[in-house]
C-alpha cells in the first residue's frame, strides 16, 4: 500500500505532471539545490496555439511505492526524471551513464522521458549533441538549464497528448484493459472477463483515467465530462474505491475552475528536515512562474486547436462550491472502506480542508481535520509524526482554531524530543513550543499580564512555561531557564499553590546560582527577543511616600526683605471635578525640599505574598534628574506578611529636580528594576521633589536646660 502521505497536497495538484529531480553519485547538497531551484522555477508552461497550460510539480524525493498508484490518479505517477551528476574525466563517463540508466529503472514503467545533467566534463564526449544528456563545465556556467527544461517538458507533453488521444478514442472491438491499484491485483485473478459487470468496471476506470489525462493536458471541460461519465459507470457496478477517485477528480477539476489562484496558500512552508520534506513547496504553481511555449504541431491537430467549446461544457458539468464539499465527503467515505487507501483518504481530507478554508467554512473544515487525525497509517517514524502534527497545526491555524493549532504544534514539539530518538532535537522542540504561545494566549512580555484580567487557561500556560524551561535546560542555556521561570513566577503567581511556589523558587535559585537573572533583553539566534522580567510582586508595593527631612534639618524659606509677597494674591477657583490620573499623582510637586548632601528617605508599604519568609537583598531607589547615591537595604519579610513599612534612603549629590521612578531589588538571584509607571494601583504623594544647595547649619548650645 502507499505509505508516505504528502500533507502539502492540494486539489490543483491533480493537474500537475510529476517530475523527480535527483542527484546521481556524489553531488554537493548546496550545488544540487542551487540547480534544483532553477529547474523548479519552470513550473508553468503555455501550450502554443491554444489556451492550454501545463503545470509541473517537482520533487527531489519520491517513494517508488507511491508511484505504483499512478494508474489510480495520474498526478501520482512520475512521468519525468532529471538527474544531476558530477563527472570530471572521460574515464568516469561510462560508469556515470550506467548509473543514470539504473536510476531510470527505479521509475521505469511510468517515465515519459528523462534527462541527465552532467557538470564538470569537457572535451570530446561533451561536444557530441544528444537529447537526453546536457554537459556543463561547472555549476556557475550553465545558462541553458531553463531552456533545456522547457524542451524536456515539451517532450513530456507530446507523450501525454498521444496517450490522451489514444485512450480517448474508443476503438470498438478492442478490449479495454482493467486498471488496478497494487492491492487489487490478486483479487482479480480468475474473474469472468466477458461479463457485462466486468466490462462496465473496465470502462468506468478507463473513463476516470482519461479524465485525469485531460486535466493534466490542460483540458478542463473534457475532464469534467469524462469524470461525470466515470461516476455513473462505476456507481452502477459498486466499484467504490475508483468511484471515490472519480468523485475526487470532479472535485479537483471544479476547484481549479472556481479558485484559479489555487488553494495551497501560505501553509506551504515546508519544514526543511532531511531530503524528503524540504524545498518542495517553493514551487506551487504561482502565476508569474516562468512560462514556456510548447508547439503541439508535432501531433495531429485533433483536439488541440483553441477550444471554442470551453465555456459551454464547463459551466454545465462543473460542481458548485457547496457540491464540491459534498462530493469530497462522499469520496472520503468510499476511501474509508479500504484500509490500504489510508493515505488517499488522508490527503483527500487535507485537500477538502484547504478548499473549506477558502470558503471560510471553519466548522466543517474542522470535521474533516478531525477525521484526518484518526486515520491510521502504518507505524510512522518520529520525523513523519513531527511533520504530520505540524501540518495539522498549520491547517487548524488557517481555519482560525488557534488553540487547537497550538495543541498539535505542542505535540509536534514533544515529538522532536521523543525518548526513541537517538539525538533529541531540543532546539526544534523549543522553537515549536515558542510558536504555540499565541494559541494559549501567552506572550513573552510580562507587560501583557500586568493590566486587568488574566486571559487563557493558567494551568495549561504554566505547563507550557515549565516545558520551555526544561527545553532551555536541555539546550544548555541557563539564562533562558532563568528568564522563563522568572516569567512563570511573576505572571502566574496568583495561580500557584503554596507547594508550587516553593518548588518554582527553589528551581529558580538553583539556576541563578550558575547564571543570575538580569534586566538584559535576551536575543535568540532567530532574532526573537525575550524582554526582562522584573519581580514587581516579590514583594508587592502598595504605596510610595517621599518623606520630609527631620525637623532639625529642614530648610526654612526666608520672607522677602521688601515684604512684598505678591505671589499669595492669586484668584482661587473652586472646581468639584478632581482629575484622578495616575500620571498627575506621580508628577505632583511636593511642598517640601530635600537638601544636597543630607540623607533623604522614601517610605514603601510592602507585603510578601509568599507562604515563606522572603529575603530581599539589595533593595534601593531608582531616580533621575539629580546625581543620587542610593544606600541599598536588605530586608526579610515574614510569610504572607500583611503591609509592612520599608524605608529606603539615599543622598542627593547635586541640586535640581529629582524624580523617584521606582526601586531595584535582588530576589532569588534575579535582579529587577521595578518602575512605578508599570505598577498598577501604587499610591503616592508625588514623586518629584526639589533638591536645594547644602545650607549652613545653625546649632545653638546654651547653659539653660533644653
TrEMBL record:
Keyword hit for Ribosomal protein: no
GO cellular component: trans-Golgi network
Domain Trs120/TRAPPC9 first Ig-like: 541-669
Primary localization class, coarse: Golgi
Domain Trs120/TRAPPC9 TPR region: 363-510
One matching Pfam family: TPR_TRAPPC9-Trs120
Keywords, ordered alphabetically: Golgi apparatus
Record-linked InterPro entries: Ig_TRAPPC9_Trs120_1st (IPR058565), TPR_TRAPPC9_Trs120 (IPR058564), Trs120_TRAPPC9 (IPR013935), Trs120_TRAPPC9_N (IPR058563)
Chain ranges of the Trs120/TRAPPC9 N-terminal domain: 187-260
Keyword presence, Acyltransferase: no
Subcellular location: Golgi apparatus
Similarity-based family: Belongs to the NIBP family.
Name this protein carries in UniProt: TPPC9 protein
Amino acid at each position: 500500500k502507499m505509505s508516505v502521505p504528502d500533507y502539502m497536497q492540494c486539489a490543483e495538484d491533480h493537474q500537475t505532471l510529476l517530475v523527480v529531480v535527483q542527484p546521481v553519485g556524489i553531488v554537493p547538497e548546496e550545488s544540487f539545490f542551487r540547480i534544483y531551484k532553477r529547474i523548479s522555477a519552470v513550473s508553468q508552461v503555455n501550450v502554443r496555439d491554444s489556451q492550454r497550460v501545463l503545470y509541473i510539480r517537482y520533487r527531489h524525493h519520491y517513494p517508488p511505492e507511491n508511484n505504483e498508484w499512478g494508474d489510480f490518479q495520474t498526478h501520482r505517477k512520475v512521468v519525468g526524471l532529471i538527474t544531476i551528476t558530477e563527472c570530471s574525466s572521460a574515464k568516469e563517463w561510462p560508469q556515470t551513464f550506467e548509473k543514470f540508466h539504473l536510476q531510470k529503472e527505479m521509475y521505469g514503467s511510468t517515465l515519459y522521458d528523462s534527462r541527465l545533467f552532467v557538470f564538470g566534463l569537457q572535451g570530446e564526449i561533451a561536444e557530441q549533441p544528444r537529447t537526453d544528456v546536457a554537459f556543463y563545465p561547472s555549476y556557475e556556467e550553465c545558462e541553458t538549464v531553463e531552456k533545456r527544461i522547457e524542451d524536456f517538458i515539451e517532450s513530456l507533453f507530446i507523450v501525454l497528448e498521444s496517450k490522451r488521444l489514444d485512450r480517448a478514442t474508443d476503438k470498438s472491438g478492442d478490449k479495454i484493459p482493467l486498471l488496478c491499484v497494487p492491492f487489487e491485483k490478486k483479487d482479480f485473478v480468475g474473474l469472468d472477463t466477458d461479463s457485462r459487470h466486468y466490462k462496465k468496471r473496465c470502462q468506468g476506470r478507463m473513463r476516470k483515467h482519461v479524465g485525469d489525462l485531460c486535466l493534466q493536458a490542460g483540458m478542463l471541460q473534457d475532464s469534467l465530462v469524462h469524470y461525470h461519465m466515470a461516476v455513473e459507470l462505476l456507481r452502477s457496478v459498486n466499484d467504490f474505491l475508483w468511484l471515490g477517485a472519480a468523485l475526487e477528480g470532479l472535485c479537483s477539476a471544479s476547484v481549479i475552475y472556481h479558485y484559479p489562484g489555487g488553494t495551497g496558500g501560505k501553509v506551504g512552508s515546508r519544514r526543511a528536515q532531511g531530503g524528503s520534506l524540504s524545498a518542495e513547496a517553493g514551487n506551487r504553481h504561482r502565476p508569474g512562474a516562468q512560462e514556456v511555449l510548447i508547439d503541439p504541431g508535432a501531433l495531429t491537430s485533433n483536439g488541440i486547436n483553441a477550444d471554442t467549446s470551453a465555456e459551454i461544457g464547463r459551466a454545465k458539468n462543473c460542481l458548485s462550491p457547496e457540491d464540491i464539499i459534498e462530493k469530497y465527503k462522499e469520496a472520503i467515505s468510499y476511501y474509508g472502506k479500504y484500509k490500504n487507501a489510508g493515505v488517499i483518504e488522508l490527503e483527500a481530507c487535507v485537500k477538502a480542508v484547504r478548499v473549506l478554508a477558502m470558503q471560510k467554512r471553519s466548522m466543517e473544515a474542522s470535521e474533516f481535520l478531525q477525521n484526518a487525525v484518526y486515520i491510521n497509517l502504518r507505524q510512522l517514524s518520529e520525523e513523519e509524526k513531527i511533520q504530520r502534527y505540524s501540518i495539522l497545526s498549520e491547517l487548524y491555524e488557517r481555519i482560525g482554531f488557534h488553540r487547537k493549532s497550538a495543541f498539535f504544534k505542542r505535540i509536534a514539539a514533544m515529538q522532536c524530543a521523543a525518548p526513541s530518538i537517538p539525538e533529541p532535537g531540543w532546539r526544534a522542540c523549543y522553537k515549536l513550543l515558542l510558536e504555540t504561545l499565541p494559541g494559549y494566549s501567552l506572550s513573552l512580555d510580562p507587560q501583557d499580564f500586568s493590566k486587568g484580567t488574566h486571559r487563557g487557561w493558567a494551568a495549561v500556560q504554566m505547563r507550557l512555561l515549565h516545558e520551555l524551561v526544561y527545553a532551555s535546560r536541555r539546550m544548555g542555556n541557563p539564562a533562558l531557564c532563568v528568564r522563563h521561570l522568572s516569567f512563570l513566577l511573576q505572571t502566574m503567581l496568583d495561580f500557584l499553590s503554596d507547594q508550587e511556589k516553593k518548588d518554582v523558587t527553589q528551581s529558580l535559585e538553583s539556576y541563578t546560582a550558575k547564571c543570575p537573572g538580569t534586566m538584559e533583553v535576551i536575543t535568540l539566534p532567530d532574532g526573537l527577543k525575550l524582554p526582562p522580567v522584573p519581580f514587581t510582586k516579590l514583594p508587592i508595593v502598595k504605596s510610595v511616600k517621599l518623606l520630609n527631612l527631620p525637623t532639625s534639618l529642614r530648610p526654612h524659606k526666608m520672607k522677602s526683605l521688601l515684604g512684598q509677597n505678591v505671589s499669595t494674591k492669586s484668584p482661587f477657583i473652586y472646581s468639584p471635578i478632581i482629575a484622578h490620573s495616575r500620571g498627575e499623582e506621580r508628577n505632583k510637586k511636593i511642598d517640601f525640599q530635600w537638601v544636597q548632601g543630607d540623607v533623604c528617605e522614601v517610605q514603601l508599604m510592602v507585603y510578601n505574598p509568599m507562604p515563606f519568609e522572603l529575603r530581599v537583598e539589595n533593595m534601593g531607589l531608582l531616580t533621575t534628574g539629580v546625581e543620587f547615591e542610593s544606600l541599598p537595604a536588605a530586608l526579610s519579610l515574614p510569610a504572607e506578611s500583611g503591609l509592612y513599612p520599608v524605608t529606603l534612603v539615599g543622598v542627593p549629590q547635586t541640586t535640581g529636580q529629582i524624580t523617584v521612578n521606582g526601586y531595584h531589588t535582588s530576589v532569588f538571584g534575579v535582579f529587577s528594576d521595578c518602575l512605578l509607571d508599570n505598577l498598577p494601583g501604587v499610591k503616592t504623594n508625588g514623586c518629584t521633589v526639589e533638591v536645594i544647595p547644602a545650607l549652613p547649619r545653625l546649632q545653638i548650645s546654651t547653659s539653660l536646660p533644653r
